[in-house]
Structure formats: C-alpha cells, structure tokens
C-alpha cells in the first residue's frame, strides 16, 4: 500500500470517528482506544495500534473541554502518533512522548474551525429570515464539512509530509535520549490516571484504590485479575450496603410503629 493511500485512510479514520460525535450522537468512538487499533489495522499492525491507543487513553482519559476552553486535539494526536510510530518503526514509548506536542499543535485546528464556521452560522440566520429551509440545511452540512476538513487535512499532511522527517529525527536521537523518552512515556499514563483520580477522589472509597495498587505492585496481579477482584468487592459492598439500608429502614418503621401504637392507646 502506497504512503499516500495509507495517509488518506488514516486521515479518513480520524475524521470519520470525530464526525460521529458531531452528526451521529456521542458514542465515544473518537477516543484513542478506538482510533489506535483502527489506524493499526490500516497500517498492518493492529497490535501495536492497540498498545499505543491504550497508552494514550490513559494519558487523556480525564481530558475534557469545559466552557470555552479548548483541550489538545486528541483525535489528530492519536491517529498521527499511531500511524507515524508504525510507519517509522519507532518504539511506541518514544512516539507516545511525541504525541503530546502533536496534539497541542493540532489544538489550533479546534480553535480555527469554529471561527471559520461562523460564516455558515450567519448565512443560516439570513436563510432563516427569508424562510429558506433548504439553505439552512446546506449551512448545517457546510459547518460539518469544515469540522471534517480540519481533522482530515492535518492528519493527511502530517503523515505524508512528516513521516520522513520523523524517521530522520528518530534516527538522530541519541540512545540516552530515547531511553529518557521511553521512561517519560511510561510516566505519562500514570499522570493521566492521577489527573482523573484528582477529579474523582473520595475518602470513602480511597482504600479500594490502594488495595488495587497493592494487588498489582506486591502480588503481581495483572489488570484483568485486579478488575475481577474489584468487581467482586463492588458486588459485596453493594449487597452489604443494601442490607444495612434495609435494616435501618426496618428499624425506623418499627420505631415509628411503636410511637403510633402508643399514640393510639393514649
């Protein structure tokens, strides 16, 4: 498969999964864990695509645009980083460290797209004032095309024009620097998880977090095993909490019933 055709397919995947959240409802298809394997399938290495996508998902799982803030472009960063890693043969740890600046630079596209889209917004207002419903429909689709292009074009150009540059750049990096990038790439998922924990931390359930850490660090339990133990503990906690609530409610009913009986006797 030629490089241009691969670039077209990778860019199409990135733009298509993003547009699903715009016109097809939000089903979370534009996440790195989905983009990575799809890009890897096109590039002929779905296993590495899944590995990179999983690592990037850990980095960006707690990243959200709140209000008018524009977060890094996760779609472009995930698709381009995965494609470049597979095409250049670089380790996914090294490419993981490069994915962050790619997403930050591509953030400019997310800022520029709404600005360009204001043309269609004003045009739709004029069509609405004139009762031109067909014009309103075309303006809506025109805005969708703008968002599609601002995902498709950066990924395609970054892959076609940047793969050779990335290859040369990776070859020029000394071994000690590559080892440093690999270690920083291993830290980034932990940073992403820490950011998510900071948003969801609750003292009531904090002990379960350290229990999972202990299973992995000291007992060498893998992720699937820890998830199994977590599901069992969650089920037991749910059953015990439900029983305590039922007993408390029963006690309240008994007490209230006793008061009612006394009031009736009086």
Automatic annotation (TrEMBL):
Residues crossing the lipid bilayer are 144-169, 181-201, 207-238
Give the matching PROSITE patterns.
Answer: PTS_EIIC_TYPE_4
What's the main place this protein lives?
membrane
Domain of life assignment: Bacteria
Q: Which Pfam families match?
A: EII-Sor
List where in the cell it is found: Cell membrane
Keywords attached to this Swiss-Prot or TrEMBL record, sorted alphabetically, are: Cell membrane, Membrane, Phosphotransferase system, Sugar transport, Transmembrane, Transmembrane helix, Transport
Does the keyword Cell membrane feature in the UniProt annotation?
A: yes
Which parts of the chain are coiled coil? none
Alphabetized InterPro entries for the sequence: GatZ_KbaZ_carbometab, PTS_IIC_man
How the protein sits in the membrane?
Multi-pass membrane protein
UniProt entry tagged with the keyword Iron-sulfur? no
- Listed name of the protein: PTS sugar transporter subunit IIC
Species assigned in the record: Tractidigestivibacter montrealensis
């Amino acid at each position: 498969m030629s490089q241009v055709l691969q670039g077209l397919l990778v860019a199409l995947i990135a733009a298509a999964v993003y547009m699903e959240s715009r016109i097809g409802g939000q089903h979370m298809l534009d996440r790195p864990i989905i983009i990575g394997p799809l890009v890897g399938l096109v590039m002929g290495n779905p296993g590495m695509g899944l590995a990179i996508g999983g690592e990037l998902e850990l980095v960006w799982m707690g990243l959200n645009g709140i209000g008018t803030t524009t977060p890094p472009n996760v779609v472009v960063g995930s698709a381009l980083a995965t494609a470049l890693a597979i095409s250049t043969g670089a380790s996914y740890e090294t490419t993981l460290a490069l994915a962050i600046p790619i997403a930050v630079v591509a953030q400019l596209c997310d800022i520029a797209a709404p600005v360009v889209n204001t043309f269609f917004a004003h045009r739709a207002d004029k069509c609405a004032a004139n009762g031109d419903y067909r014009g309103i429909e075309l303006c809506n689709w025109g805005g969708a095309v703008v968002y599609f292009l601002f995902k498709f074009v950066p990924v395609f150009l970054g892959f076609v024009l940047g793969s050779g540059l990335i290859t040369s750049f990776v070859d020029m990096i000394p071994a000690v620097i590559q080892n440093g990038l690999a270690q920083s790439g291993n830290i980034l998922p932990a940073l992403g998880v820490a950011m998510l924990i900071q948003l969801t931390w609750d003292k009531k359930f904090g002990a379960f977090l350290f229990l999972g850490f202990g299973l992995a660090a000291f007992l060498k339990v893998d992720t699937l095993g820890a998830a199994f133990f977590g599901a069992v503990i969650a089920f037991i906690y749910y059953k015990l909490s439900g029983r305590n609530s039922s007993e408390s409610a029963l006690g309240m009913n008994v007490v209230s019933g006793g008061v009612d009986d006394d009031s009736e006797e009086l």
